[in-house]
Amino acid sequence: MVSILKKAIMAVTGLGWFVYVVLHLAGNLLLFKGPETYNAYSEFLVSNPLIIPAELGLLVFLVAHLASAWRVTRENSAARPQPYLERVLSRRGGTTSASGWFSTFASRTMWYGGVLLLFFLILHVWMFKYGDRSGAHGLWGLVVRSFKNPWISAIYIAAMLPLGFHLSHGFASALQTLGLLKPRWYPGVRRLSQVVGWVLAAGFILLPLWALLFAEV
Amino acid sequence: MDTTLDAKVPSGPLERKWSDYKSTIKLVAPANKRKYTLIVVGTGLAGASAAASLGELGYNVLSFCFQDSPRRAHSIAAQGGINAAKNYQNDGDSVWRLFYDTIKGGDYRSREANVYRLAELSVNIIDQCVAQGVPFAREYSGVLANRSFGGAQVSRTFYARGQTGQQLLLGAYGALMRQVAAGRVRLFPRREMLELVVVDGVARGIVVRNLVDGKLESYVADAVCLATGGYSNVYFLSTNAKGCNVTAIWRAHRKGAFFANPCFTQIHPTCIPVSGDYQSKLTLMSESLRNDGRVWVPKQAGDRRHPNQIPEAERDYFLERKYPAYGNLVPRDVASRSIKAVCDEGRGVGPGGRGVYLDFADAIKRDGRAVIEQKYGNLFDMYYEITGENAYEVPMRIYPAPHYTMGGLWVDYNLMSNLPGLFVLGEANFSDHGANRLGASALMQGLADGYFILPVTIGGYLADARLPKLDTDHAAFKDAEREAAARIEKLLAVRGKRTVDSFHRELGLLLWDKCGMSRNETGLKELLEQIPALREEFWRDVTVTGSAGTFNQVLERAGRVADFLEFAELMVIDALERRESCGAHFREEYQTEDGEALRNDDLYAYVAAWEFTGVGNRPILHKEPLIFEYVKPTQRSYK
Amino acid sequence: MDFILKVWRQNGPDAPGRLVTYEATNIPPEASFLEMLDIVNAGLEARGEDPIAFEHDCREGICGSCGMMINGRPHGPGRGITTCQLYMRQFKDGQTIVVEPWRAKAFPVIKDLVVDRSAFDRIIAAGGYISINTGSAPEANSILVPKEDADLAMDAAACIGCGACVAACKNASAMLFVAAKVAHLALLPQGKPERRRRVLAMVAAMDAEGFGNCTNEGECEAECPKNISIAHIARLNREYLRAKFFSR
């Protein structure tokens, strides 16, 4: 498939997931409100007839994102079979591009971070979507009890680091790939991308942290 | 036997010659064009535009260049602009005026009919290039912008920042690649032409060396077009790209093509001065700088003060003083010589006293730094990168450097040399610039030759020629291959001690001293001793590493320098023979009282076309008389 | 000045390569990087050794011939310059300098620091031009081009095809090169009739050469000797998506 098309698919599906992640965080912040609100919200979602197409959509987006990423990553490493013995990136060399873009830890680890997020996603769905909600306080109880286990909390908190990195490059990158940016927006969008990525990551980290330290079941 | 050459200029009034000729010239039927194979060597403005246009017409074209890509030909380095008699500025320009300026600028040593045709076609070139997407400078209204340029009193120069040559070449390169994609042109990059193959007196092919694997390859064609540029690199230090060489045209000359006016070499006034003997080339600063910069030296010889501390009264703005009408905008040869003169008086500035100031202080005061920055920012940056000096605050230092060669293979009105089937275009031919080329005219000539002239005239030749079918097994090809291979073997067999570049550098210095901006009989006669001696030493003591059958850059250079060593002698003979001063050829014996070039129209109003008779042998001089029916040669005056 | 050079030597596309150490001594600080290599090569030639092969021609930053990785950066330290415009005064006396060729699958090594960049020619052949035959052009001023567009087109057209963008990109992507040509022509009214065909064909040709994909890191722009902006890559993406989904 044509390179730009693959990248466009990654951009669109990535932005789709980004929107979902924002909504998901907004919904899950209801955890702080207690079992009634949170369970009602959960009930509203699962009983909604749109949930199946939405979930299918997310799945399709995920597969497309992943498949494109796989191809792009493989092609990219094939494009330079012999690596440089010495390479100084522009930022260290002091010539960051005039547009303000440069290679970052986040941009160089999109594939690895993405794979970690995939494993986390599988764990996450298995634990909460298909977990046992029949105990006290329903889903709220399941979530909070799970987070009371410091190991699980630790995994959840740690998993948000790749999310922060992934989004801090991915958000701006997707907009650039779709050709939506004007040059004068570059610095702003780069910063926005990092803020958005880390705010979301921090938001998600709050949940296990709160459950572990403050919630009472 | 010397003969008088016939340029085959069509009859009729000057303004009608080309259009009448074009409409009566024989044509090759469209369906027959694909049966003809044409070789074009070189992919600069002339070569690329010719190959593309011939491909568009339906010929089968083979395009060769020594670079890795056609886009790298040296036309790309032209900075200033391209002239065209569009008269967009309403300042009285016309085809006639461009013609007149060019012929006068060339000091009446060019062919009227050719120059008129060039001026006439200049307007079509701009149309063509704009349609190709060349991003010429524009006014806010969207129309094309112009500027005035060295030696012109009208604004007729079109430009794309300081990269006009690049943009025009990329346009021609695009057109060429379009034909490559269409299958009409086959591209042969990284090939160096080593021999012209002549069969029964007709040019029928070439032998090239594949620079990657070192193999010799032969190609047959119905006509061979050389667009291989000039030979300024004979001076070693010049503004030309390192790869520029005389080999293709010299090899053709050895096979019988006449070499015309080889001593007409242009020394460009505005280059960055030499700073040391490690230096590999000289960098040109666009002549457009002279539009706003003022050239001066201290009045006192040996004044070593910082330029900004020399008061106005102690400065000599010598161009403005000597040539009040044109001031800093006098033609290149005049400017270069004046600069040399003040340096010879000991008033030069910078290391070794070989330099003069080009000062922008007044222009910055008048227009503001922003305006100057907008016009010349990239040039000031370039100057800073090379010298480490900030020209907004300290005047630039400039000194002349070899830049362009008006001489080249002799061609008739059809751009065909005396060898039937051998066409020569662009800087490689001698035709349009006489003894001195005006600024922004080289690009014009290259493109006129390639886009508009050759595609027409070559048809006339092919329609009439009866060319037998040939292949590369023909004895002439085998002989040429053997010759080329033998020369390579000979170079590799010397196994001496001196590097190729050391010979080249020595040759360059000799020529620069005695056959450069000014020449005299004594110096030239000395050169006729020194050059053969150097050549002899070269063949005895040069070291060429590596082998023939590999990628071998030393071997490439060695072959080119070997040819320069033969060619240089011809250049000197020509300079010696021309006992007059004209344009860039300044013989010290022939000057007016105030040191201007003194032409001798009675004896030297001719093109000197030399015939090869063997290395070290006296070449035979053929003359093409220059007859001026429409302009009256006058003493050039820029006062 | 003296330097220790570690230069990649490789005899052919399939030959193994290695770094070889040379001493560059008595180099004037005003010498360009290529002139420094000339001096080293003159020494090698005089000793009958094979000099370092490197590509160069105009030596004034416009032909795009020269280009090498110098201490891990395409065209060496500095911004907006080619290797021939790099001067030795930029380095410290006694410094070790590592020199490697551009590395990309699409740019196989020919010898030492010389690589084959003909992939760029093939991309241009696919559509990097306006299809107009000689002689069929309208009067130049009948095509009005807003100055802003002409300037922007010129910014893009300044590309010299040196390949530093590919060399700099961690994915060896040629997007900046392709974007520069697509943007140059798409910005001008003359280029509009073919813009759809052009972008589709050029991107397809780019992919066929084995360049990597763009991951929007801007390293190409940072090392581009002509400072061509990645805003042109955004334009290329737009042009492509428009051609693919929104035209006709």
Features:
heterotrimer, A: 217 residues, mainly alpha, C: 248 residues, alpha+beta, Ubiquitin-like (UB roll), Fumarate Reductase Iron-sulfur Protein, Chain B, domain 2, 2 domains, five-stranded mixed sheet, 8 helices, 7 strands, elongated
Could you explain the architecture of this structure?
The complex is a heterotrimer of chains A (about 220), B (about 650) and C (about 250). Chain A has helices at about 5-30, 35-45, 50-80, 90-95, 105-110, 110-130, 140-150, 150-175, 185-215. By secondary structure, chain A is mainly alpha-helical. Chain A has one domain (about 5-80, about 105-215). In chain A, helix 7 packs across helix 9 (about 185-215). Chain B is of the alpha/beta class. Among the domains of chain B are: about 270-400, Flavocytochrome C3, Chain A, domain 1, CATH 3.90.700.10; about 475-610, Fumarate reductase/succinate dehydrogenase flavoprotein-like, C-terminal domain (Methane Monooxygenase Hydroxylase, Chain G, domain 1), CATH 1.20.58.100. Chain B has helices at about 15-25, 30-35, 45-55, 95-105, 110-130, 165-180, 245-255, 290, 320, 330-345, 360-365, 370-385, 440-465, 475-495, 500-515, 520-540, 555-575, 600-605; strands at about 35-40, 60-65, 80-85, 155-160, 185-190, 190-200, 200-210, 215-220, 225, 260, 265-270, 295-300, 315, 355-360, 395-405, 410, 420-425, 500, 540-545, 605-610, 620-625. In chain B, the strands form 6 sheets. In chain B, strands 5-2-1-9-17 form a 5-stranded parallel sheet. Chain B has a 5-stranded antiparallel sheet with strand order 11-15-14-12-13. A 4-stranded antiparallel sheet of chain B has the order 16-10-20-21. Chain C has about 250 residues and is α+β, with helices and mostly antiparallel strands. Chains in contact: A-C, B-C. Chains B and C meet through helix 3, helix 5, helix 6, helix 12 and helix 13 of B and helix 1, helix 2 and helix 3 of C.
